Each structure stands twice: as structure tokens, then as C-alpha cells.
């Protein structure tokens, strides 16, 4: 089986699988073949957000694990870090998610890190970010110079930089404040304001930047929607004994 971990968006990018392995080991010791890896991931995502200062929500349980992997699907449906706004909207729509879901879920980039190879284009692109204040201190060019010093050449492609430079260890609304200041790390972050010609998305970004509670409410709603995409239940799929393999 060709693993989704080998797909281009995931290769040398996703980390932390050993944490899921350990959780699964403890659960199998206590309650064999009872809790799926899919449910573990959904719960771990919620707990990670909450432990970093974000909202809490009830996770719907009862998912079952797939009997196969989708290498092609991972390559096709995971948004690239240099995606345009139009391609992001289309990508989310294919999964039953709307523009508000796109904006709210993008706010997850308030925690986590990205490799230099994922934002190299951000460093060299023309200084055309759309921002909404007078940049008298040249924060855009200064921010890009900082990134450039970290990612000088291809030997540093796997160097990591926080997605939220202000509060990288906390789940808050600073991601949206960064966007308004032209300091989103990925091109696919910045297009939420730089390519929003109608102003609808910018308005929501602004609302989240000034009202963290509103962001948290909408983020939870969108996470619940995303957690119900293509779910296997009942007798579909299986409960994996080891999250890295289908059962024998």
C-alpha cells in the first residue's frame, strides 16, 4: 500500500506520529479494537488546540479506519503552500466547506511550523502584499529579510519557522493580525487578503483579528464540519490495531 505520508504535501512535513502510536498502544492495552485511529486524531487535534489556549468542543466519535490509503487523493486535495485564493476556495468547496470555513480553519496556522521549502517563494516574491495601514517601518521587507536569513539556500530547505511569528506557542487570533500586517508566513496565508478583491474575506479576517471569541466560535463550527467529511461508520472499514497498518 502506497502511504499518504509519501505524498508531496506530507513528505518530510508531517510530524508527531509517535505520539499517536503511543496513545493507540495505551488504548489497545485497555480496550482492544475499540477506539479507531480516526477518532484518536480527531480527539488529539481538539486537545492540542485546547492545551495551547484555544477553544474546547465535543468531538463526535464512532469513526472507523479505512482499509486503504489514497496517495493520489493526498496529492490532489491537500492545498499547496503557494495556492491562489481561487484554488483554495475550489479546494475547500470540493470537501463541502465554504469560504467562512476556509478563513476560520486557516486560523489553525496560529500554531505549528513550516519548512523553508514551503515559503521560499514568499521571500522572493514582489512586495505586493495588500495591507491596511501605513508601513512606515517597512515591516514587510524586514519580515522577508528575516525569513531570507534563515532560508539562505537549498541546504536549509528543512529548517523550520513558526507559522505565527508573534505567539507561536499559543492558539489565539494573532494569525489574523499578522495577515493584516503582511506577515503571514505562507503565500496561501497572505492571499486571503491580497487576492480578495470583493472585500468579503478581508472583512472576516478583520473581525477575527479584533474579536478572538468570534474566531473561536467559528473555528469550532468548521472543525466539526471538517471532522464529518467522508467518515466511515457502522460496519465500514475497521478499527486498526496499529495505526500504521491495516489489520491482518
From TrEMBL:
Cofactor stoichiometry and binding remark: Binds 2 calcium ions per subunit. Binds 1 heme b (iron(II)-protoporphyrin IX) group per subunit.
GO molecular function: heme binding; lactoperoxidase activity; metal ion binding
Cysteine pairs bridged by disulfides in the record: 37-243, 116-151
Keywords: Calcium, Disulfide bond, Heme, Iron, Metal-binding, Oxidoreductase, Peroxidase, Secreted, Signal
Binding site for substrate: 79
GO-annotated cellular components: extracellular region; vacuole
CC cofactor: Ca(2+); heme b
Domain named Plant heme peroxidase family profile: residues: 1-247
Amino acids binding heme b: 109
Binding-site positions, Ca(2+) 2: 110, 164, 167, 172
GO biological process: hydrogen peroxide catabolic process; response to oxidative stress
Family: Belongs to the peroxidase family. Ascorbate peroxidase subfamily.
Protein name according to UniProt: peroxidase
Species this chain originates from: Arabidopsis thaliana (Mouse-ear cress)
Amino acid at each position: 500500500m502506497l502511504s499518504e505520508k509519501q505524498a508531496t504535501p506530507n513528505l518530510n512535513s508531517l510530524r508527531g506520529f509517535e505520539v499517536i502510536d503511543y496513545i493507540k498502544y495505551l488504548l489497545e492495552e485497555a480496550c482492544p479494537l475499540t477506539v479507531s485511529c480516526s477518532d484518536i486524531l480527531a480527539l488529539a487535534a481538539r486537545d492540542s488546540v485546547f492545551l495551547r489556549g484555544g477553544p474546547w468542543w465535543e468531538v463526535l466519535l464512532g469513526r472507523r479506519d479505512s482499509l486503504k490509503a489514497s496517495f493520489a487523493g493526498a496529492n490532489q486535495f491537500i492545498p499547496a503552500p503557494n495556492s491562489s485564493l481561487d484554488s483554495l476556495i475550489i479546494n475547500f468547496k470540493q470537501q463541502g466547506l465554504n469560504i467562512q470555513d476556509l478563513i476560520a480553519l486557516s486560523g489553525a496556522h496560529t500554531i505549528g511550523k513550516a519548512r523553508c521549502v514551503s515559503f521560499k517563494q514568499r521571500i522572493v516574491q514582489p512586495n505586493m502584499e495588500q495591507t491596511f495601514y501605513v508601513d512606515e517601518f517597512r515591516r514587510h521587507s524586514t519580515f522577508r529579510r528575516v525569513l531570507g536569513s534563515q532560508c539562505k539556500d537549498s541546504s536549509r530547505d528543512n529548517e523550520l519557522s513558526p507559522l505565527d511569528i508573534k505567539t507561536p506557542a499559543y492558539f489565539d487570533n494573532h494569525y489574523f493580525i499578522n495577515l493584516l500586517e503582511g506577515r503571514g508566513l505562507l503565500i496561501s496565508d497572505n492571499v486571503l487578503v491580497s487576492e480578495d478583491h470583493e472585500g468579503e474575506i478581508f472583512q472576516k479576517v478583520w473581525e477575527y483579528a479584533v474579536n478572538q471569541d468570534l474566531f473561536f466560535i467559528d473555528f469550532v463550527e468548521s472543525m466539526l464540519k471538517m471532522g464529518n467529511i467522508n467518515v466511515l461508520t457502522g460496519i465500514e472499514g475497521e478499527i486498526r490495531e496499529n495505526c500504521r497498518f491495516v489489520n491482518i
